[in-house]
Amino acid sequence: MGEVSLIDVSKRFTLRIDGGGQTVQALDRLSFTVHDGEIVALIGPSGCGKTTALRIAMGLETASGGRVIVDGMQVNGCGHDRGMVFQHAELLPWLTALQNVEFGLEMKGVRGQALRDTATRYLTLVGLGDSCNRRPYQLSGGMQQRVGIARALAIDPKVLLMDEPFGALDAQTRETLQGELLEIHKRTKKTILFVTHDLDEAVLLADRVVVMQHGRLQEIVTVPLSRPRDDLAKIRGSDDFAQTRYHIWQALHAGGATVH
Predict the structure, then answer these.
(1) Total-model pTM
(2) How far apart are the first and last CA of the chain?
């Protein structure tokens, strides 16, 4: 199982300005559930709390109120039941692609031949079986991001969390990796929660889209596109795609948001 629930999650920051303090409400009683095997997108304007919600779900930040539940267990810090893919791959530059994937497995306690075999299998899954011995500077941005995805998947998390995973890539590479993520999801059935600013990406990948404004849940939109989603060009040209995209656009602009 891989169900994750945010229940009345709030987050407050105190900013120090000219010797004084100003409290910022980044999240305000945010609640939603990502069901087992589902892909859910978080979308909203910059500063609405998307990444903060994701980092709290991962255990990288602590909520001021509320809780996160993964398969009935409350999240208290990071754990191997969740894997994280960042906007930039954050690879260790002195390690090869294979060693970067092995690093996460070593933290989980995997050793010996199983370490090498597992890392190799997941690099092959993301199409980098022939690039195991390359270091990050020898890889393109898209290839580096593939290594980041392999590293997160290799620990076999129940939930994969992704923070604008393709946001720093060029349009062609982004579209390629969107298709590859759909293929990975078809093979692994992983539960995925990802943050994006891209309306097309949210509709193309997700089963449901969580629309946020000012740290709050505004609307949850169900995407009426069946899986598998193999013919992405046909999907992008469908009426369901266009109507769902427009619905989300309206929800965002009702709160004065600016998105792609």
Answers:
(1) 0.92
(2) 34
